[in-house]
User: Fold these one by one.
Assistant:
Number 1:
Amino acid sequence: MGAAVLGMQATVGALVAKALTTSSVPYYQGISAGQSPVLALDVFLVQASANTILSHFLGLSSSLELLRSVTISPADAGPVPRPA
């Protein structure tokens, strides 16, 4: 899941870079055959997908950490200090 987050963020970066480099060419001037323009909707859709995956990843990791801290046995936790 972490690799998916990194891959999605790299895709977002590539789309933003392509959008910034091709924004100087207006749509009415004609685009070469091998090049397609990046629409703002493309960037927003990929960014929304990346944010969804990231939020699920953070929720999963935090809930697993909470589950681990609740189910840890007292013997594994170490000695409990007693009042003097």
Number 2:
Amino acid sequence: MVCGGFTCSKNALCSLNVVYMMVGLLLIAVAAWGKGFGLVSSIHIIGGVIAVGVFLLLIAMVGLPCKHTSCLQCGDMMLDHASEVLKILGGVGLFFSFTEILGVWLAVRYRNQKDPRANPSAFL
């Protein structure tokens, strides 16, 4: 799976549409919650926030109908890609962990060396 290709772009757009759906639902829920608890008294503000939430939710739903019956769902493709990426990131993290250990060893070794320019009769 090559990042930057059609599949990557499709998965990114699917993810973005899911995020927009959650934001739309969150807008609707927060507006209803604010009206229910009496935090916002203006019906125009509540109506505007709910209208924006519904509009965003509808646009996000349009961006998600899969037209082909044989296509894979975005979630399955993203999980496959995520497991592959996590394996690579684990290897990179392990590599840098060992370089950190090497850095600590070199720092301890450098700290315990005597400075050749220093006065040899000095205590430290």
Number 3:
Amino acid sequence: MKEYGEQIDPSTHRKNYVRVVGRNGESSELDLQGIRIDSDISGTLKFACESIVEEYEDELIEFFSREADNVKDKLCSKRTDLCDHALHISHDEL
């Protein structure tokens, strides 16, 4: 969770969590303008993720045990409605 920061969408005022460290471990290539990074954000994001896993535990087990096509999209958008606001964004970060 320490690799993520919080960014607030100026038009919707919705909080988004974005990776602030690249897959290679470097942040120099990323544009971090408007992204807040601190330990409170990491804790909040960790709690939110744990809550989602707890609430959707059965769905997670079902999807990953069947190895269905497009697991990320089906779980994130169609089964849980957690990501409907982000349908235009790739769920590759899951």
